[in-house]
Design goal:
Blueprint (H helix, E strand, L loop, with lengths): L1 E9 L2 E6 L2 E9 L2 H10 L4 E6 H6 L5 H10 L3 E5 L5 H9 L4 E4 L1 H5 L1 H10 L4 E8 L2 E4 L4 E6 H6 L8 E6 L11 H10 L4 E4 L5 H9 L5 E6 L1 H4 L5 H9 L2
Parallel strand pairs: 1-4, 1-12, 4-5, 5-6, 6-7, 7-10, 10-11, 11-12
Antiparallel strand pairs: 1-2, 2-3, 7-8, 8-9
Helix pairs in contact: 1-3, 9-11
Length: 242
């Protein structure tokens, strides 16, 4: 099971939001590339990066910061936030990003996502963000009338690499990962699932690792690492043994 440390970008800085609220941002670092190197030194081979400004704007807003992270990090960078056009997809892969996470467009323009998944094999992750079991879009500012499972099933046999499931109500809140909902989703589809939202410590990693054989590919960790509640190297080692 892969442990993805997270770098969320707002105004070029590393931040964490509470429940996806841009007004509730805590700044943790001014240099995203330096933060990426710290994660690499702890043993991370995978990194999850989100252009938060881009998620709300619908286009890249932290391009320079992302490019510096990709150049600095020796492993695989997974990027999300505002990716809603084919030019964005092609451009980021050409710049060295390993995988792209697409959320809003997965709901509003599924054929675009399916075409990208066909052309960039193993490169597209569909974000399935949940508010009360319904799909949240546009930087989590809007809630749709589609269930999480219905959206996920739309992409079965489409060639997407994974589903990124986030319980928005837990994100950045250190409430603990919604393991039950994550595992339920993984059992409902034939696509690997990445858990996200609310990880508060090593117990979450351990519980998810025990469910890895149910289709859990990995877990994204943010605030717990930055606040010192989760040792990244320990989490990576535990995930590797799953």
């Amino acid at each position: 099971m892969i442990v993805f440390p997270a770098i969320d970008l707002k105004g070029g800085k590393v931040v964490r939001l509470a429940e996806g609220d841009m007004a509730r941002a805590t700044v943790y670092a001014d240099d995203p590339a330096a933060q990426a190197l710290l994660f690499a030194e702890a043993g991370a081979e995978h990194l999850h990066v989100v252009d938060l400004d881009g998620a709300f704007a619908g286009e890249a807003r932290n391009r320079e910061a992302v490019e510096r992270v990709v150049a600095a990090f020796p492993g695989h960078v997974q990027l999300g936030g505002g990716i809603r056009a084919r030019a964005d997809v092609d451009g980021w892969f050409e710049r060295g990003v390993a995988r792209l996470v697409i959320g809003t467009a997965a709901l509003k323009d599924p054929e675009f996502v399916k075409a990208a998944a066909r052309d960039w094999e193993g490169g597209i992750v569909v974000a399935v963000d949940a508010k009360g079991g319904m799909v949240a879009t546009d930087g989590w500012a809007e809630t749709s009338d589609m269930t999480v499972v219905d959206l996920a099933r739309r992409f079965e046999d489409a060639g997407v690499a994974a589903l990124l499931f986030t319980d928005v109500g837990r994100d950045g809140m250190l409430k603990g990962c919604n393991i039950e909902a994550t595992v339920d989703l993984a059992r409902s589809v034939d696509i690997p699932v990445i858990a996200s939202g609310g990880v508060k410590g090593i117990a979450d990693i351990r519980m998810l690792a025990l469910q890895a054989d149910q289709g859990i590919e990995g877990v994204i960790c943010g605030r717990a690492i930055y606040d010192g509640r989760l040792d990244l190297a320990t989490a990576i080692a535990l995930g590797a043994g799953a």
